[in-house]
Amino acid sequence: MAEIRVYPDPVLRQKSKRVKHIDGAIARLIDDMVETMHEVGGVGLAAPQVGTPLRVVVIELPGEEILVLVNPEIVKRSGERQVEEGCLSIPGYRGEIKRSEKVTAKGLDRRGREIRIKGEGLLAQVLEHEIDHLNGITYIEHLESIDNLSQVAPDTETPEI
């Protein structure tokens, strides 16, 4: 299990580098990220959150298969909704922000094959959240006001992204 980097760690603020080759090191990073995500009870994790500034994310919504995206980018967004969001790298806080209702993202799977993911609701939110991490953006940058950020007890039932 890797250590989760916590805000204001500088790795969370930098733009991640594209992965040139999916090799054994990237496969180990993916496996480590999945293990870490499971250990901490998250539904998504971006490589910068474990201190590696590469464009890799893992996502696992409750009851769904693990999604691995290498060099992901959002190619389409539609709609807008208000959501409450938290982050493993900003423990103890949640914020009200706007996210897209639907998102289409493309990238590579862990074998290097091109994939396209269409998501709505929670999946759209997690895709935006994790891809933001790859661009050095955390959800608190989306807050309209600091009043939209609230402290929460560490044992809340809502999974962190």
By DSSP (H or I, 4+ residues per run), the number of helices equals 2
- How large, in whole angstroms, is the Cα Rg? 15 Å
In sequence order, what are the helices and strands, one letter per element?
HEEEEEEEHE
End-to-end span in angstroms? 17 Å
Helical percent range?
A: 10-25%
Q: Low-confidence parts, pLDDT < 50 over ≥5 residues? A: none
Q: Quick recap of the structure?
A:
The protein has about 160 residues and is of the alpha+beta class. The protein has one domain (about 10-150): Peptide Deformylase (Alpha-Beta Complex). The protein has helices spanning about 25-40, 120-135, and strands at about 45, 55-60, 65-80, 80-85, 95-100, 100-110, 115-120, 150.
Topology:
Elements lengths: L23 H17 L3 E3 L9 E4 L7 E12 L2 E6 L6 E7 L2 E7 L5 E7 L1 H13 L14 E3 L10
Antiparallel strand pairs: 1-2, 2-3, 3-6, 4-5, 5-8, 6-7
Q: Any overview of this molecule?
A:
The protein has a single domain (10-151), classed as Peptide Deformylase (Alpha-Beta Complex), CATH 3.90.45.10. It is built from two helices and eight strands, in the order H-E-E-E-E-E-E-E-H-E. The chain has helices at 24-40, 122-134, and strands spanning 44-46, 56-59, 67-78, 81-86, 93-99, 102-108, 114-120, 149-151. It has a five-stranded antiparallel β-sheet, sandwiched between helices. Strands 4-5-8 form a three-stranded antiparallel β-sheet. Strand 2 and strand 3 (67-78) form a beta hairpin. The protein is globular.
